[in-house]
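Re: How this chain folds, sequence and tokenised backbone to follow
How to read it: Take the token row as a discrete description of the fold.
Start of record: The labelled sequence and token lines come straight after this line.
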Amino acid sequence: MKKYGHLTLEERSQIEVLLKLKYSQREIAKLLCRSQSTISDEIKRNTKGKEVYKAKRAEQRSSKRSYNQRKQAPLKEMWIWEYVLSRLKRRWSPETISGRLWLDHSVKLHHETIYRYIYSRDGQHNGLYQYLKLHRKKRMKVYGRKVKRQPIKDRIMIAERPSLEGFGNWETDNMEGIRSDKKSVSVTIEKLSRYMRADVIGRNSNAKTSHILKRLSDLPVKTLTTDNGSENAGHNQWPGSVYFCNAYHSWEKGAVENAIGRIRRHVPKKQSIEWLTNRKMQWIVNEYNETPRKCLNYLTPKEVFMRELQT
């Protein structure tokens, strides 16, 4: 199994001995469980002219090179620039390039430095953004928009939720359009049947609570799982036991996330939803509830939901 990371002094000593014994670079790489390119680069970078490879000298030069690299301007050396560019063209992310550069050459180059170069004047001129996953011509703020939120009182986190069994466990979330919208869509899903209830509502906690009470008060509700959005501040009025996901753990309410993804076929992301009426929303809900699902053995959510209500 191949090893990665920078070479140790012990490995450099082995290289020195094996070279004296006339082992080839390929044989040395195999014995040390390293790639041949790692051994070749090590020898080339730590011998000058007719010098014979010496482990102690190689260790000193490597340490000095690492120290100097931290002081030099990023991407200043041509070989580093070529390394980064070639990997970008192979659709490697800056994080992957940064990590692999350290494994291959013991050179530290922060992924943020690569991003800055991509969006610099030179990087923009060469269209380097096109090699990134999302192909954005302009970079988003590194840390995004900071929103000050008051923590929701009396939350019970999902770690305390009992094992979910049977019918009556629900998940809920809000789907939004653009920041200036005054509307949102409250979506609530029963996990066993995937049955959906949804309404176009306002963006405050009173509107969210009204939706929950309107749509669930006459139905079996064991648990309700939601996120930490401020619209859920009225959770004490909701039916059932309410549990909150961990921050940025959207998979902890995967059923409602999947349902919102299906709604997005009709209501695309990054577009205003001010045009969306409850009449249109109920048409989308009905289509969803009457579409057979593989996870339900090709029954519809409505069929499974009605079956469970009658048992």
